[in-house]
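Quick one, probably user error.
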C-alpha cells in the first residue's frame, strides 16, 4: 500500500477510536511508523487528511446508494440498502458522530458535503420510486421530498444525536443497529402489506444481532 493511502487509513482508524479532535498528525505518523516530515510530504495538515477520508466516504456512499438497475429480488435489495447504512455509519463513525463540528471548521469540506448530499437525495428519490414500482411502498409524489428528508435526517444525525444525549455515549455496533431500527420504523407506515412483511423480516434480523 502506498504511503499516502496508509496515512489515510491510519487516520480513519485513529479518528474512529479516539475522536478526530484528539488525534494529531504526529499521532498518525507514529501509528504507521513514519516521520512527520514524510506525512507532510503527502498532506500539508490534518484537514487535508480529513478531506481525503471524506472523498473515500463519498465514493462509497454514492456507490452503495445507487438506484437499482434491472430486476432484483426485493428483499435482498432492501437488505442491501439497510446493510449499507450500517457499513457506512460504522466505517466512518467519527464523521457521523461529529458532523457539525467537522464541517464548521472547513468551508471547502462543507461545500463538498452539500454537493454529495444533493446527489444522494436524487438517488434516494430514485430508490424510493423503485420500491413504489415493486409495490413495497406507497408514497404520494407530493410527499416524496419530505419522506426522503426524514430518512436522510435519521441516518445523518443519529450518532450525533446519541452523543449529545449522553456525554459518555460510545459509538458501538449496537448503537448503529438502533439507528437502523429507527429507519425501518420511519419506512413502515409507508409500506404495503408485502413491504411491511419484508421490513419485519429485516427488523427481526437486526434485533437478533443483539438478542
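Nope, works fine. Designed sequence:
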Amino acid at each position: 500500500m502506498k504511503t499516502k493511502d496508509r496515512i489515510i487509513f491510519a487516520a480513519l482508524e485513529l479518528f474512529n477510536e479516539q475522536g478526530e479532535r484528539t488525534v494529531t498528525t504526529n499521532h498518525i505518523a507514529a501509528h504507521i511508523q513514519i516521520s512527520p516530515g514524510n506525512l507532510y510530504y503527502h498532506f500539508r495538515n490534518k484537514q487535508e487528511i480529513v478531506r481525503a477520508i471524506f472523498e473515500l466516504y463519498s465514493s462509497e456512499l454514492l456507490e452503495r446508494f445507487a438506484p437499482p438497475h434491472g430486476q432484483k429480488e426485493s428483499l435482498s435489495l432492501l437488505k442491501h440498502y439497510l446493510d449499507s447504512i450500517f457499513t457506512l455509519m460504522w466505517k466512518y463513525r467519527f464523521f457521523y458522530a461529529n458532523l457539525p463540528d467537522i464541517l464548521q471548521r472547513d468551508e471547502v469540506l462543507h461545500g463538498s458535503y452539500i454537493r454529495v448530499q444533493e446527489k444522494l437525495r436524487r438517488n434516494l428519490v430514485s430508490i424510493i420510486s423503485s420500491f413504489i414500482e415493486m409495490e413495497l411502498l406507497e408514497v404520494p409524489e407530493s410527499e416524496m421530498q419530505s419522506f426522503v428528508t426524514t430518512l436522510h435526517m435519521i441516518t445523518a444525525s443519529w450518532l450525533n444525536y446519541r452523543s449529545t444525549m449522553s456525554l459518555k455515549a460510545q459509538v458501538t455496533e449496537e448503537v448503529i443497529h438502533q439507528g437502523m431500527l429507527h429507519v425501518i420504523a420511519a419506512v413502515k407506515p409507508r409500506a404495503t402489506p408485502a413491504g411491511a412483511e419484508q421490513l419485519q423480516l429485516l427488523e427481526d434480523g437486526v434485533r437478533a444481532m443483539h438478542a
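The two ends are 39 Å apart (CA to CA).
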